[in-house]
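Morning F.,

Quick status update on the modeling queue. The single chain you submitted on Monday has been processed. Sequence for confirmation:
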Amino acid sequence: MEKTDTRVLGFLPLLAVVVGSIVGAGIFNAPADLGRVANPGWIAVAWAITGIGMFSLAKIFQYLAVRRPELEGGIYSYAREVAGEFTGFNSAYGYWWSALFTNLAFFFAIAKILGLYLPFLARNKWAAFALASALLWGYAALIRAGIRTAGAANLAITLLKLLPLVFVALLAAFLFKPALVGDPFSATLKGTGATAGFWRQLGGSFGVMVFAFMGIESGVVISSKARHARDVGRAGLAGFFLTLVLYVSVSTLTLGVAPARDIINAPSPLGAVLGAVLGGFGGHFLNIGFLLSVLGALLAWLLLTAETPYSAAVRDGAFPRAFARTNARATPVFSLAVTAAVSQLLLALLFLFSRSADIAARGNAPLLQNLYFGAISISVICALVPYVLSALLGARQARRDGKTAPVVYAALSIVLFAWMFASMARYTAAAVVVYASGFAFRLRVHRERRQRLPAGEAVFYAVMLVAGAVVLTCIAAGRIRF
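C-alpha cells below.
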C-alpha cells in the first residue's frame, strides 16, 4: 500500500460527520414514531432518560479519545482492548452490519419521500430499486475520490439539512397550542386513542430514541482520520448537545401545532406540521429538508461503514487483509467496494421479495415503513454489544486512573443499553443470524495466518450457526415476525 497522510479531518468536518450521522430520517419521523406510542409528557421524560444514557456514552468516548488516543478505530479497538481480538472482531463485524442496516433504512426513507413527487417511483418498485442503486454507487464513487472530498461535501449537506429543523423548532415554540396536547401524561394516547401506561409509553419510546442517537460514536470510528485527537471527543459532545436540543424541541412541540392523528398518519410528519401552518409551501419545504437530511446521513454512514472493517484489518488483521487496502487518497477502497456490494445485494433481495402491489402509490408507505423500522431495529441491536464494550473499557481505564466520573458514566450507559436490549428482544433473533455469518470472515483470517480455527471460536460459531438456522426456519415459517 502507498504511504499517505490519512489525518485530513479537522474539528468542523468531524462535527459534520457526527451530526450528519446522528441526524437522518429519525428526527423527521420522530413526531409520528413517538406520537404512536406516547404522549408529549412521557416523550419528554423518555428523552431525558435517553439523553442521560447517550450523554454518558459520549463522555466515555471523549474520555477514551483523550486517555487512549492510540486506540484509533474506536469501536473495534475498544472491544479488542477489553476482551481480546476475537471479541474485537465480533464487535466490528456487528457494528459493520448495524451500519449496513442503517444505510438500508435511509434508502427506504428516500424512496418514501420521493414517491410523493415522482409517481413512477410509487408505481414501479424496480424504478425505486434503480434509484437506490444509483445513489449507493454514486456515493461510493464520491467517497473513493477521497475522505477529504467526502468530508467537505458532508459538511455542506449537514448545514443545509439543519436549517429546516431549526426553523420548525422555533416555529413550533411560538405556535404551540396546549389545547392540542391536553394532558401530556394521559394514559390515553392522543394520536391513536389507545390506552398505554407510563411504563409502556417510556419503553415504546426508547427504541426510536436510541436509533435517533446512533452515530454519536462516528467520531471515534474515523479517529484515525482526525488531525488532532482532542477534536474527536469535542466533536462527539458538541454533536450530542446540538442534536438533543433539536430532538426534544421537534418531537414534543410539534404535537401542539397540528393534531396528533394528522401527524402520525402523514408520509412526512414534519411536512404535515408546516403544511398545517403555512400551507403547501410549508409541506414542500420540510419534505425537501427531510430528503437533504437523509442524503447527508447516508453519506456519513457509508463513510463509517467502510471505515470499520478497514480499522479492524489494518490494526492487527482481525478482518481479511484485503480490507486494509487504501488508495492514494486515504480511502479504504476494498472495504468500500464490499460494503457497496453487500448493500446492493440486500437491496435486491428486499425488493425482489416484496410484491409489486405493495409499492403502489397509496400502499407503498406501509411497506417502506415496515422495512424502515425493521432495519433500524436490527441496527440498534447489532450496535448494543460494541456500545457496552466501549463503556466497559471506559470504566476499566477510569479505575486505573483513579477517576470516579467515567465509571458512573459507564454504569449509566450500560443500564440504558440493557433496558433497550430487553425492550427489543424480538430483534435479537436477526442479530444471531448476522453474527453467525461472520464465520466465513474468521476462516479467511486464520487461513491467511496459516492457523487452524481456535477451539473457542469453533464452538462459538457452531452454536451460532445452529441457532441461526433455527431462526431462519422460524422466519420462513412465519413464527418470527418483525
